[in-house]
Design goal:
The structure is a single chain. The protein is an all-alpha fold. It folds into two domains: 171 residues, UbiA prenyltransferase (Tetracycline Repressor, domain 2); 140 residues. Helices cover 76% and strands 0% of the residues.
């Protein structure tokens, strides 16, 4: 970390921290995605869990995801302090110290892994431990500040939750859980690059080598389109596997048509246009990307429920 990071983390909190400040360390918005995809992975698995065990599994996965967020904020305090989007996070805002965030992250990491293993199995616990390690060490500490492909490789961390949910129910990994992993993995780059396009100044100020900073906006737009095309092929193809079905295929066709249309609009953007006009498409695409992933996993969940109740039998 930089000297700025050390200074930021060593200072005392300016005001008494509230529960909401500590909760914000866990990145609750990101945790929502983690919980939902893990929940889908767990319920889509062919081996049903007792509802209480399933609840505990999702709770511990959520805690593990929150622990990753706290450790990410601890390490990235210097970056968060100069980025407009993150300046109000607990550490740069002076509500929580870096030492507190680190202690909370480590404690919750150990707690979540151990209790997930005790509640379900150690395959799921091992995947959760690896996910936390990958997000904090591989992505946050290494890739994020080193390569413009940071979000491509680092996106794996956010793609593991459905695999963990599946493993919690089955005790293993299968083609179906890998497909759910791949869906999230391929979705991550266009999702975050759209954000980086209209938040480029933040990454410039923080000296983070996002693709928009190192290769420019035109290259980023090209990458968004390329990844969106690959994602569409993968997403629709998944509908013809055991996790898909009529509901999923219909949902995927509509969403991917919208997503491709948005990516093409971004690709066609004129770099000479005013900034406000130029980034309207990116903002819309970013918001659509959130609906895109939730709807796909929602469709997988519906298909699992219909299959379980014998609707398609």
């Amino acid at each position: 970390m930089t000297d700025t990071s050390i200074n930021t983390q060593s200072r005392s909190a300016e005001t008494d921290a509230q529960f909401s400040d500590y909760f914000a360390l866990l990145k609750p918005r990101v945790m929502t995605l983690v919980v939902f995809t893990a929940f889908v992975g767990l319920l889509a698995a062919p081996t049903p869990l007792h509802p209480f065990v399933g609840f505990c599994a999702i709770l511990f996965i959520a805690i593990g995801g929150g622990a990753s967020g706290a450790l990410n904020m601890w390490w990235d305090a210097d970056i968060d302090a100069v980025m407009k989007r993150t300046q109000r996070r607990p550490i740069p805002a002076g509500k929580v110290t870096g030492d507190e965030a680190f202690a909370i992250g480590i404690a919750l990491s150990a707690f979540s892994v151990v209790f997930l293993g005790l509640a379900t199995n150690w395959v799921a616990a091992g995947l959760l431990a690896f996910t936390i390690f990958f997000y904090v060490v591989i992505y946050t500490m290494w890739l994020k500040r080193w390569t413009p492909q940071n979000i491509v490789i680092g996106g794996a961390a956010g793609a593991f939750p459905p695999m963990i949910g599946w493993a919690a129910a089955t005790g293993g990994v299968s083609v179906e859980s890998v497909l759910m992993f791949c869906l999230t993995f391929m979705w991550t780059p266009p999702h975050f690059w759209a954000l980086a396009l209209f938040m480029r100044k933040d990454y410039d100020n923080a000296d983070v080598p996002m693709l928009t900073v190192t290769h420019g906006r035109r290259a980023t737009r090209n990458h968004i389109l390329a990844y969106t095309v690959l994602l569409a092929i993968l997403a629709v193809a998944a509908g013809f596997t055991s996790i898909g079905g009529p509901v999923y295929i219909a949902t995927s066709l509509v969403l991917n048509a919208m997503f491709l249309r948005g990516a093409i609009r971004i690709w066609r953007r004129d770099e000479d246009m005013s900034e406000d006009d130029n980034f309207l498409a990116e903002r819309k695409f970013f918001k659509l990307s959130l609906l895109y992933l939730f709807a796909h996993f929602g469709a997988i969940l519906i298909e699992a429920g219909l299959d379980r109740f014998g609707v398609w039998a």
